[in-house]
Predict the 3D structure of the following.
Amino acid sequence: MGNDDPMALRIEDYGLIGDTHTAAIVGRDGSIDWCCLPRFDSEACFASLLGDATNGYWRIAPAESPRPGQGAPLLARRRGYRPDTLVLETEFEVAGGTVRVTDCMPLRERHPQIVRMVECLSGRVDVRMELCVRFGYGTTVPWVRQLDGLLTLVAGPDALALWTPVATKGEDMRTVAEFSVQAGQRVPFVLSWYSSHEPPPRPPDADYIVSDTTSWWEQWSAMSVVDDGPWREAVVRSAITLKALTYQPTGGIVAAVTTSLPETLGGERNWDYRFCWLRDATLTLTALLAAGYHEEAMAWRDWLLRAVAGDPARLQIMYGASGERNLSEAELDWLSGYEGSRPVRVGNAAAGQYQLDVYGEMMSALHESRRAGMDPGPAWELEQALLDFVEDGWRKPDDGIWEVRGPRRHFTHSKVMAWVAMDRAVRDVEQFGLDGPVDRWRATRDAIHGEVLEKGYDAERRTFTQSYGSKALDASVLMIPMFGFLPPKDARVLGTLEAIQKELVRDGFVLRYDAEHAGDVDGLTGREGAFLACSFWLVDNLDLTGRREEAVAMFERLLALRNDLGLLSEEYDPVEQRLVGNFPQAFSHVSLVNSAINLSRPGGVAEELTHRGRLAGRRVDVAGHAAARRARLRRDVHHRLRRA
């Protein structure tokens, strides 16, 4: 399928709008090139990001801009979010004047909606709207008709309804509208998803929706406890992004909005990230708590508990937004891939891998939640079941944090996280008076510690290695001082830091491992970009070891990689000097928040951890106050939406 030229922009040229159930990717050319409705992991109805113009998009731009597939598009002169919101404004300047397109997705009650408001700021501008809906990841052309003033687009279980006061017409299997606006005029477009067996929803007041959505995000952002400082804007923008990646009904946080944006342009390292990873658990929890979003942290913690319930031996590394376990992987051969990067995958076979580190992530996250004053309820029984598994399971090889598709190995990071699981259990008994076979847990903890120091450390090279007996390095061992496995200024930690800076840093940013020479480990070919979360971990390690000026300098370099909207993808390609990987990436923004908070405190990371412990009791009151404010906010917004 598809005969138009690829139309996707650089990843940096995209922005994000969302309603905490799903999201859309909006280009600097005024085109929505990716959107899954009604959930993050639903089939896309706009998929040109991974194909061409025949796979679906929704574009609003000055009429003089070349049409998709017919030349380089006109890019916006300026764009930005309204301060502290997820309401996006994109301005185009042409000979006749300036026009602005405002995009948002209102916090939904029932039906997801995308609202696009066209406003002429000066002069007179001819505008063209093109709506090309293709359900089923770009395969299914809908049945289109006019119904009571609405344009409806129906295919199978899915339906969309477009409301606008301007006339539309069919053209080349697309819906188009051509109109002119002059200074002060506004023209709204509202696209609503609904189940095809139900009647379409009543169109809302678009002006009101934009205003109300702006207010909602402003009030949510104002709940942050981040002090004014050089990085407050970056932290708040990252917090907004994490909120947008949250599936509100359950509290799960998806890793990214997209699937199959490549780790290397033209390569095969293309994965579906529209799911929730346990590996993100502790860092996500601490980032939300540090930024003051206690309710979101509690919702994430509760999602973790529900998702992992069951047989500890069948603990998965990732789940769907509602805790789904079946994430079967398939390849969509009709999509040409972002800049020819094939295959395009949906689902993720790595969900069936054995990754030992997730047990440590779970135990650490629940320990941190206790330190923050959260009552985990009956979680201790579940945790003891996890520990029973780890007591034997830690001796087995696994697939590792990076979900490699080669043979299982004794990965050093995995063993360290098994140590974290036992260590946090011991601390829970000692600090919170919980019951358990603490002497046995201490013995297991000590056994793991001793084996890692013996088999995971290369004394000749003075560094921890990727796996037992390997000479390869892996940035995941930067977690060793961050989780307290060894003191930050231990000679083995310092040697590892030096080795990683020497061998895994490219143009100042950190690779996960040397992918170009790791075919026997990950089962794939080709290189990949620098992994941004690992680069933030290096910042934290530099700070922990007393090299604060270097840490701040590197952090500033990482901030400079964000696009003009403050968004980061998974990786940065230092060769192509572009963002690569799925976008926007939760793990990158979580790591940004943690590094910013750490650097904002005079004592750095260590002081921040101590500070969280001191605030544990007080945060309960803060959480109650914040929860009450949010409840009032939601009631007010929902009441106004119904009234509108």
